[in-house]
Amino acid sequence: MGKDDVKLLSMWASPFCMRVKVALAEKEVAYEEILENDLMGGKTELLIQSNPVHKQVPVLLHDDKPVVESTNILTYIDEVWPAKPLLPTCAYGKSRARFWADYIDRKVFPAGRNIWTAKEDGQVESARKEFLDILMYLDGTLGDKDYFNGDNFGFVDILLIGLTSWFPAFEKYGGFKVEDHYPKLAAWITRSYARKTVSESLTNPEKITNFVGMMRQMYGIE
Amino acid sequence: MAKQQDELILLDFWASMFGMRVRIALAEKGIPYEYREEDLKNKSHLLLESNPVHKKIPVLIHNGKPVSESCIIVEYIDEVWKDKAPLLPSEPYAKAHARFWTDFIDKKLYQPGRNLYTTKGEELEASRKDFISCLKLLEGELGDKPYFGGESFGYLDISLIPFYSWFQAYETYGNFITEHESPKLIAWAKRCIQNKDSVSNTLPDLEKVLALFNK
Q1: What average pLDDT does range A204-218 have in this prediction?
Q2: Residues 6 or more apart whose Cβ sits within 8 Å of residue A202
Q3: For residue range B111-141, what is the model confidence (pLDDT) as tens digits?
Q4: Is this prediction's ipTM beyond 0.85?
Q5: How wide is the angle at C-alpha B204 spanned by C-alphas B203 and B208, nearest 5°?
Q6: What whole-number distance in Å separates Cα of residue B83 and Cα of residue B99?
Q7: Does A98 touch chain B (CB under 8 A)?
Q8: Which of A179, A204, B37, B93 lies 20 to 30 angstroms, CA to CA, from B5?
Q9: Would residue A194 be called left, alpha or beta, if left means φ above 0 and alpha means ψ between -120 and 50 degrees?
Q10: Which of A50, A89, A99, A106 to mutate to test the interface with B (most CBs of B within 10 A)?
Q11: Domains in chain A, start-ordered, CATH in brackets?
């Protein structure tokens, strides 16, 4: 069988792209990263062709066949390279992982965005409260486990950890610290960052925070 | 693992397109279950306990363990009862493709559809345009295949067909005719209803759904 040709169309600040990088690293799958321009540049022809419906990164090109939407990509990666499974093996465990994946996807990033785009104090406060309420559920489901997946770093861990590179930006503009409210979740972040697959795949949060600061200026928020 | 005496309870609302997905999947697999109609203005204790995060139907309770979110439930059903009538394709790329379009339906079709009967003026106009362009994209994906799944009715067909029962409502409030905009989709929907008992036995009458708004 020929060697798999795997390419990832990504953008450095995208937490959704970071997820895919972590997953590929966990599976030890070699790939070529093709960086899209950031917000300032136009979208490349390759991106538009590979994802004509949404025109967004990440896009995984496996032997030139595109797979899009980060959670969908992670599921695909787990099915194509089944060694070291990311999802639990039993159907019920899978359904729980998918439930939390859906929750994270629907809630975390939009709530974070509401924090850094808020213009008035009242808006910041309600955005912060909403974000912390969302984290409460995640903290609850993590419980006393090392990882959302149990003893092993897995699907839900990977989906959330990419987003945590944006947490310092949310904390800065929201005026809070996750560790003050949810120490277990904060410990999980530290524990996950100790994995090479994570530390080498995630963009430095400081760079993200600077990027958010720049976007706030662009949008006239500060 | 499916046991000899599985206890299955479905908490649902008759007009919910998401609930219909689950009912169709269960019917495709020939799985018996207890259907419980929820009053969405007065949700049952069981629903609130089974889905404390979202408090929404559908919820499938399998031997006491709840599964929520329609797509997750359908995949769960497909995995547990994998020996009967497979719903998802077996090949990972085809699976990813089916999941992508289901995600598209949930993210891009549902809200504009809802806006057709909850908004007016410019917002309604914009939603109509969005809705119709989504239908056309889906029609493109269907192409000349009899079903989205190819020769066989499958996961993506199940994801979309319940929306057909809302088309009369969408058309009345959105002021357009789906058949003019996406004739292949209408042909596909009628084919599903004609050929699949699971669909014809599950979808409510279009008039009944429309009557929901006349109360």
Answers
A1: 95
A2: A18, A21, A22, A161, A162, A164, A165, A193
A3: 999 999 899 899 999 999 999 999 999 999 9
A4: yes
A5: 155
A6: 21
A7: yes
A8: B37
A9: alpha
A10: A99
A11: 6-80 (3.40.30.10), 91-218 (1.20.1050.10)
